[in-house]
Amino acid sequence: MNKRVRVRFAPSPTGGLHLGGVRTVLFNYLFAKKHGGDFILRIEDTDQTRFVPGAEEYIIQTLNWCGMTPDESPVVGGPYAPYRQSERKENYKQYATQLIEAGHAYYAFDTPAEIEEMRNHFKTPENPSPQYNHAVRAKMRNSLSLDAAEVAALLEAGTPYVVRIKMPDNEEVSFTDMIRGEVSFNTSQVDDKVLLKADGMPTYHLAVVVDDYLMKISHAFRGEEWLPSAPVHLLLWKYLGWISDMPQWAHLPLILKPDGHGKLSKRDGDRLGFPVFAMDWTDPKTNEKAIGFKERGFLPEAFVNLLAVLGWNDGTDQEIFSMAELIEKFSIDRVHKGGAKFDYEKAKWFNAEWIKNADNAYLAGLVQPYFDEAGIKAQDQTYLEKIIGITKERCILLPDFVTQAGFYFTAPTQIDTASIAPKWDDNKKNFFEALCVAFENSNSNDHTILENIFKELTATHGLKPGELMLPMRIMLVGGKFGPAVFEIAATIGISDAVARIKYALQLLNA
Ligand code: GLU
Fold this sequence. Notes:
By secondary structure, the protein is mainly alpha-helical. It has 20 helices and 13 strands.
């Protein structure tokens, strides 16, 4: 590669980040880091009508959470600042003018009502919404159809106008996509897109080309929904005289619904009960809330890992990859052309794997907020880490630690006595009372000793250990879960264990 690798994630701040958006960031990021290049965040906020407060902050927080902090961004700045297109407004007009002067763009004075009238006039059953294109432009009010004096007068009078690209009629344009190979378009299929709006703001089409050029972007990876815009962008690169600097493009395949039919949407998540957004997002206009992977209890490492393998693999069966490994192994050639089905069960599997292998101190920090929320006080850091270590194999999502580990810190308030009651009798009651005495006398926190005491006592009472283990588990933890029961007793300490058994006995005898 002769050019310095510079890639950008260029979101419009219109809402929360969907899985597909984060995967786009990830592939950009991996490519940049693999090639020792720069990863840039550029906020494409030229469409003020779609601006959503809080969306930019959300995007930045999501990137940080995933460990993909940009080298240049509105936050840290950089050599090509500003990185918000709304703050670069002055840059674009000159290029629109340059295009007009070269005959590749034109002023269009049509009012929305006139455009509506054109649509009504030309619509047919096959073409219900005719576009402003080569076929109709001569019949509209623009600098191609009006004579020069009239155009000058309109401009002089301050008549509102937009600048449109003049798409050539029936020309083939093509480019080589890094994932799809050669892609070609006939220009007659594409309308005369607006480049500069009446408020002087560029549209996405002009701004993306100008900024990719000015910011020296070498590769642009974006979602496949942008493929239809590629011919417009390609011609702009050409008409502006920059074609040899055009970034190499890769249009990334969609993330599909679990059944493979169509693009995964937030609605699918709501319907099937899983997150589609990276982090919780509340739409400030509708107050509609979307749950996030983060708040559901995914580790960022797992989230990144599961996204990476949605549409990419390294050619082996390996599934678990750290960011460092992804950077080393990622290659755009191994990104599939077809869409990747999203499987939430598989996503959870990734998380469970990452939890199982994560450092206890690291997990302790992540679990703390869930404990705080559940009112579980885990002040002793060494003990907390020990408990995390004992229970992490049983946790799929971070909130699972509340159930799987909470009882090590606080005696359960809810005891599932209903599961004990049907087989409860005086013999068992006598056994547990004797067990409390024997445990107290032992004053031991050694699980083997406790287990031996328990077993000897079952024999004395003519009972089988098997029928007493489950009641004891429920007494200690509140329900039918947790690791080996004597280990639980030894870990919480014998006096605490005895107190829990006594409390449960009271409930059962009540
Ligand atoms: N602003 C576009 C978006 O919202 C960026 C598309 C591109 O990367 O060119 O996704």
